[in-house]
Structure of D-3-phosphoglycerate dehydrogenase:
Amino acid sequence: MTTQGDAAQKPTVLQVGPLKPSLAQTLADDYAARVLPDSAGERKAFLAGHGAEITAVVTSGRTGVDASLMEALPNLGAVVNFGVGYDTTDVDAASARGVGVSNTPDVLTDCVADTAVGLVIDTLRHFSASDRYVRAGRWAVEGNYPLTRQVSNSRVGVIGLGRIGRAIALRLSAFGCTISYHNRSELSDSPYTYASSPVELARGVDVLVVAAAGGDGTRGLVDGEVLDALGSDGYLINIARGSVVDQDALVSALVDGRLAGAGLDVFADEPQVPEVLFGLDNVVLLPHVASGTVQTRAAMEALTLQNLDAFLATGELVTPVQQPAPAR
Ligand code: 8YV
């Protein structure tokens, strides 16, 4: 156990934000981790008393560590992030301070890609809406459910052909879909057609799948102009971050019927979801569950702990977004 006296020598772990319960338990039991209080007053007192003890933070993509928290942790060496997305952590501030940042890539790629494909199918084929139709007793009364849109052989555009984007493309290729993509630059090793802008990509597809990392570099990348280019026969699927899409523009396009439908796992201000979408059967709404399987979350937890252990033992991270500055 860390005491005030030896705090400067002993590595002390801080949990920032809620974590998977088993991970939080392990941090408490095996690392004697402290937990950053939620309330502003308690947090201030905690940081004044313990900020200098902290050498590693464990957080999730939903919370992260901003520049002001980093400043209150002068001996911080690493931010260990549960999740592949780390847009809630200020990586520039971390870099300036020599603080390493890790995430959990690869282990969630399959589940997130599965979710994207599930959303494509559900949104185009209205399975969730049809299920509601049956449960409400409408089948027997109103007859067959209206016809929907075929997924196989459709044209799919992927924004962000990284690990997850490629896994989505691979799956939908097996459905006979024609795949095109937009990235900051064209990939030399991709079999898919490159579009030089999101608008150009949207113009040529039936379904636009957002798989780009969140953060300032992609904020509002899918704006009203992109949605107009996708058009009233087009569908938007987002399994990335709500920030990549202009949510107000999306909602008005859906409400006005200027978009055929949307499948959304992520939102601009989670867990808030625009209520006007609740009444639309051409929209599928998920509570940010893309990686949420027992297997994948266990693998994410294990990789999070591997990063933490490696940092505490060697000062290096296993899956770094950036490594800590050496010889701290
Ligand atoms: C997690 C995610 O739910 O990995 C990510 O970036 O969005 C999800 O897999 C989230 O990070 C957990 O906080």
